[in-house]
Specification:
By secondary structure, the protein is mainly alpha-helical. The protein contains 12 helices and 14 strands.
């Protein structure tokens, strides 16, 4: 693969296709915030607003403004979403709802800690863009809320009976690896060091299983294996995405051995998670090969492939491992031949096992202006370092 051509491919897709699609179709000019439920052509098919996606979009436009070019229209887009979030997105104590009506009335209570995570990212990045202290305050106070809730993320909204099967989930330590670097400019050095040390241990020691070389989604509190649906669950995309967060931490901490270990875990996960029959990466798997309870287990999702490309590009850049390069080429070929929509722009999100488009939407309850643009940016900038 010619690196210069690849860089151009990723950049052109980001700036000529994906960003314009969301700039054109997403802003709600009447009530504020963004529409994310967009059909293939970009028409709005549902007006509910999901805090994950509102926060991610504020973060993405702020990020482009901070890291690519200080375009006023990107900052305006970020401020547009932030104003809506600030006014309607939380309960008054910065506990962030899961979803709202178009007008901003809460639909789903603040049970989901990842709403808080993406709000923290959004306002932390917006503070960097504007220097406006109120945004930094929102990010910092929300981050402290997250750390307070970390042991019991759902709190009173949890359905589980306490004490019977007290499993720990991988998602929060994983995202904190990224979040601690995202808002490092707002934290004391002691807080950064403490948070990074804790999440590194969780991801690389507690959830990592040395006997298989894989990372599980749920483990017993002491990190041991739990032989249940939840305990056997492998989410290849999550595990691989977490490894580029670890690679970023390895650079930040000047610990190259961490990048090496992360690359090994990603490669091991790919060997297990790749569909040998149709290509692409499975969504869910059972570590023992048993049937999984998620009926969508064999679907091929946009974010899984995008995050894998980031990890493989960083893995090759940081370790020089040719295996990362070979896998990058394989995943790149699958991704670019299946997900982009040459007719109406942006990318499809959901394919069936055979790689056929399952849902023609460009945005919905989970897919927004985040994984595709972040991935295109991350891969192109990583390739530039080569």
């Amino acid at each position: 693969m010619e690196v210069k051509m690849l860089i151009q491919q990723y950049k052109s897709e980001l700036f000529d296709n994906v960003v314009p699609f969301w700039e054109k179709h997403s802003p709600d000019r009447e009530y504020g915030g963004y529409f994310t439920c967009l059909d293939r052509q970009g028409n709005v098919f549902d007006t509910d607003k999901f805090i994950w996606l509102q926060g991610r979009q504020v973060w993405m436009f702020s990020s482009l403004y901070n890291r690519v070019e200080r375009k006023p229209e990107w900052l305006d887009m970020a401020l547009h979403g932030a104003a809506f979030l600030q006014k309607y997105g939380h309960d008054g104590n910065l506990n962030w709802y899961f979803s709202l009506t178009r007008e901003g009335k809460p639909l789903v209570a603040p049970y989901n800690i990842f709403s808080d995570c993406f709000a923290t990212m959004a306002f932390g990045q917006l503070f960097q863009a504007t220097g406006d202290q109120q945004y930094g305050e929102i990010a910092l106070r929300t981050f402290e809320n997250i750390l307070r809730r970390a042991e019991n993320p759902k709190g009173r909204f949890s359905k589980a009976v306490p004490g019977t099967r007290p499993l720990k989930g991988f998602s929060l330590p994983m995202i904190l690896c990224n979040l601690s670097l995202e808002i490092e400019h707002l934290l004391t050095p002691e807080r950064v060091e403490e948070t990074i040390g804790q999440v590194l241990h969780e991801v690389m020691d507690v959830f990592y299983q040395s006997d298989t070389g894989l990372i599980l989604e749920n483990v017993n509190p002491d990190g041991s294996f739990n032989d249940s649906f939840e305990g056997r669950l492998l989410n290849p995309g999550h595990a691989i995405e977490a490894m580029w967060f670890i690679m970023d931490l390895s650079v930040r901490l000047q610990r190259p051995e961490l990048a090496r270990r992360a690359a090994d875990i990603a490669l091991c996960t790919l060997e297990v998670g790749w569909d040998p029959l149709y290509g692409g990466i499975f969504y869910f798997m059972d570590i023992k090969g048993h049937p999984v309870q998620q009926l969508e287990w064999d679907q091929k999702l946009w974010w899984v492939h995008m995050e894998t490309l980031i990890t493989l590009a960083k893995g090759y850049q940081l370790t020089g491992d040719e295996k990362c390069l070979r896998w990058f080429e394989k995943v790149h070929d699958y991704t670019w031949s299946h997900f982009p929509d040459p007719e109406f722009g942006e990318w499809f999100g959901y394919l069936n096992r055979r790689g056929e488009v399952l849902l023609p939407l460009k945005g919905g309850k989970w897919k927004g202006f985040f994984h595709v643009p972040r991935g295109l940016y991350q891969v192109s900038t990583t390739l530039e370092k080569l």
